[in-house]
Design a protein that fits this description.
Elements: E1 22-26, H1 28-39, E2 44-46, H2 55-65, H3 71-78, E3 79-82, E4 85-88, H4 100-120, E5 123-128, E6 132-136, E7 143-144, E8 155-159, H5 162-179, E9 184-189, H6 198-219, E10 223-225, H7 228-236, H8 251-265, H9 268-284, H10 294-317
Parallel strand pairs: 1-2, 1-5, 5-9, 9-10
Antiparallel strand pairs: 3-4, 6-7, 6-8
């Protein structure tokens, strides 16, 4: 008897090269997979502009990064102050400071980092988190990336349509293809549940994102879809694969998705490289069992020297890795 339906990875005809940088944008699920890549010493640049949840906010910073809009003007127009703290509607609170000038400089630096990463990346992984957006009441149509804990009366909350997402991203993908003709794009939908929207709101939001991804991948041959959402929701489909908040995938859930991602996009020779990189990362994180012991300290120093030698050899053999 079978008690679950398992997602079977189909190896891509064009596997990824982990010796080229990867850029991950979007929901905090990008942070999870990006951290897993970096653990294997894959040069993954994760959310230079902070965690972004909705497709329009992701597209907005990307358009700025590829020079398709006025960066300084947009950043200055995005600044907002509350109780002495300056934030930007373009990104999360990681850019905040107590002066408008510093916040603007932080946001501009983030966009410059995104631009640099786009130019160097071999793969762009975009994770849509929600189709719900917040627009400023005082500026109709202005979609914020983060509400910065402002009162609900500051915003109009609505759900994007499939067509709105497709229209924005079609133009952006055309610009990306022109600017970076070798860039490959993988869309995913985050398995993180947005239960503040209610069960129905979360389900409909995810459905919109899934249909938008389907349409975009059908239109652009360099774009494809990886079913992270479906793997967690339909393959694992058990609360033991969620964290204590019952919203985010657990460590085991993320690891399972990572294994499926490897099966789909990383060929066996490259997996050997990642395994070696992960072994080195674990060795670098080793700590002595006995603190304050001279013999243990000497053994630890010897271990460190050997690991650094191993890391140097790894980097010489695979110069694109961390």
């Amino acid at each position: 008897m079978r008690f679950r339906t398992e997602f079977i990875s189909t190896p891509s005809p064009s596997p990824l090269n982990p010796e080229r940088p990867a850029l991950l944008l979007g929901s905090c699920f990008s942070d999870n997979i990006g951290a897993r890549m970096r653990q294997c010493r894959w040069d993954a640049r994760v959310n230079p502009c902070g965690v972004l949840y909705n497709p329009l906010s992701i597209a907005n910073v990307m358009r700025m990064a590829i020079g398709k809009s006025d960066v300084v003007g947009k950043v200055m127009a995005s600044l907002t102050s509350d109780r002495g703290i300056w934030n930007s509607w373009l990104c999360d609170s990681g850019a905040a400071s107590d002066s408008a000038e510093d916040t603007a400089a932080n946001v501009i630096a983030r966009i410059a980092s995104l631009s640099e990463s786009l130019a160097e990346a071999g793969i762009l992984i975009v994770t849509f988190g929600t189709a719900w957006i917040y627009e400023l009441i005082d500026s109709p149509g202005y979609v914020v990336a983060n509400c910065h804990k402002r009162p609900a009366a500051t915003f109009v909350r609505r759900r994007l349509s499939v067509q709105e997402i497709v229209d924005v991203w079609c133009g952006l993908l055309e610009d990306l293809a022109q600017a970076y003709p070798r860039l490959r794009v993988i869309f995913t939908v985050s398995p993180v549940r947005h239960l503040k929207d209610g069960f129905e709101g979360n389900a409909r939001s995810k459905a919109i994102l899934l249909l938008a991804c389907e349409e975009l991948c059908a239109r652009f041959r360099f774009a494809e879809y990886f079913p992270a959402y479906e793997i967690v929701a339909d393959d694992l489909r058990d609360y033991r694969f969620y964290a204590d908040d019952l919203v985010h995938p657990s460590t085991e859930g993320v690891e399972y998705v990572w294994e499926k991602f490897l099966g789909s996009y990383v060929a066996q020779p490259s997996r050997k490289i990642l395994e070696e990189g992960e072994a080195i990362t674990r060795a670098l994180g080793h700590r002595p069992l006995i603190e304050g012991c001279r013999a243990a300290a000497e053994q630890m120093e010897l271990h460190r020297l050997k690991t650094m030698e191993r890391l140097g050899s790894f980097r010489r053999s695979h110069p694109g890795m961390l």
